[in-house]
Amino acid sequence: SGTGPTDDITGGAFYMYFETSGSPAASVDITSECLDISGLTAPALSFYNHMFGSSIGTLNVYVNGTVEWTMSGDQGNQWNWAQVDLSAYAGSTNITVEFVATAAADPVSGFVFWGDIAIDEVCVDEYLVIDGCTDPLALNYDPFANNDDGSCNYCTDNQVGVTFYDSW
Prior knowledge:
This protein is mainly beta. Helix content is 0%, strand content 35%.
């Protein structure tokens, strides 16, 4: 309670999580069975993660023993979607996917109990192309976009805007 999700991403079902209250293990992992992705043109792994709390550690995703995705620290009290490009494994008839969650101590208290990590809706399928602005410096940056569609907007010195004064 307090750091884990209140429900799965779709509501009313199940999810997998690393409970860090009490005396947690330093890390937990879950590994898929062998997967045949040879029928996919542009293979990708997608999943939702929930990483909320001051002592969130790291969530790593390994494919055949190689780290292909990693996230650390508090990501907010919501489910976050992630997609991992598996094109390096295209044509493979035997891959395994492993999720490894590690705990971290709270920076203030030193305890490890505000850091549950959860995953849900794990899927291996075709890579989903999401058009949008991929430049984090743009006003309309889309963190979910993976294909820049040329729509980025920037604030320039010659644009009409608000004038700020240095005195009240």
